Amino acid sequence: MATRQLSIFRKALAATAVAFALFVRLLPLPVSRRLGRGLGSLGYHFVPRLKRIGKANLDHAYGDAISPEEKRRILKESAQNMTVVAVEFMHIPAIDRRFVDTQIEMAGLEHVDSSKGALLVGAHYGNWEWMAPALVAQGWRLAEVVRPMEPAWMHRFVDRTRRGNGVHTIERDGAGQEMLRLMREGWLVGVLIDQSPRASAAPVRFFDQPCWSTVAPAIAAARAQVPVHGIRMLRLEGAAIA
Fold first, then answer.
1. N or C: which end of the chain has fewer CB within 10 A?
2. pTM, 2 dp
3. Distance of alpha carbon 158 from alpha carbon 140, whole angstroms
């Protein structure tokens, strides 16, 4: 019974999220950002788990090198960025070349050779959901590796939005052969690598703390004989969250 109730709750939560996303799509981007920032502030103040985990991570990363006040500021702005990313997601269809030129700054792309395929690695930084459509808007052929969501109908909704600007998506499970084929055909394939996997992973130290780092993208790039490039994306100053 408890499992069934949890399943019903998750479906209801997913339906609410989709309804909210469709509402956000109707709003101008600056209004969506203000709404996202407000939701992030609410989450910071009223979701204890967010503060607990965030504070523990900042303590691991910085120790006593920065003040508790600075850690609170970083944590609050991180919470706000998460919810701003969520509302900005529905504005992916607006991303064209002009949008990229006026709203987005990308670093690392200048090292990519447009005549051959490559593996692009990034992180959940800035608005990571905008990186793929921004690259496609600039004329690149790009595929991104994504993690399936539950329930399946919500994943289809999110995937349609991601693909709306010509981005090709590859589901993470069993992605290897598709990644190899596309990179060998001259595509860019993007992967976010800043989470802590257990499968296909190697132990490393990050901020002098033990963690796991995926090796699957490096193996795929080596097999396809293409280079690996790190990229990042930031909103331009005039398009900042604040």
1. N
2. 0.87
3. 22
